[in-house]
Amino acid sequence: MTTAVISVSPDTPTSEVAGILRDHRISAVPVIDQIGTPIGMVSEGDLIGRDDADHEARRDWWLTLLAEGETLNPNFLASLRASKRRVRDVMTAPVVTVGEETELKLARLLTAHRIKLVPVLRDGQIVGIVSRADLLRTLAEV
Length: 142
Hints:
The protein is an alpha+beta fold and 142 residues long. It has helices spanning 14-24, 44-48, 52-66, 74-81, 87-90, 106-113, 132-141, and strands at 28-32, 38-43, 98-99, 117-122, 125-131. The strands form two sheets. It has a three-stranded mixed β-sheet. The longest helix is centred in the middle third of the chain and has 15 residues, at 52-66.
């Protein structure tokens, strides 16, 4: 289990989360509310937004139609593309968690829920995270 848990709030800009994931070389972080209770997870996949390109193409077509043949200002288009999304807009919820004393087969839990990591709670607060990498380290030590 990793005990140095990095988390974000639902109001964190997605651009900031991308930097956190990159800087800490992690693939996801828990999303916590004001009192530290986990309410979701946000991962690389959540940030990528698999259909953003399709959305932009439809929006650009619509804007061109409204411009009635006029060239749209590139700065205007860039401002529309700037991400103003917050974690609450892309996070996965509810979050799958386990208690500190859980003796479940964690590998099965991760597989069953198709997740890469699971926050570990004590009294409703995150005390660690177990990832697939943690499980592999444990197997390698046996």
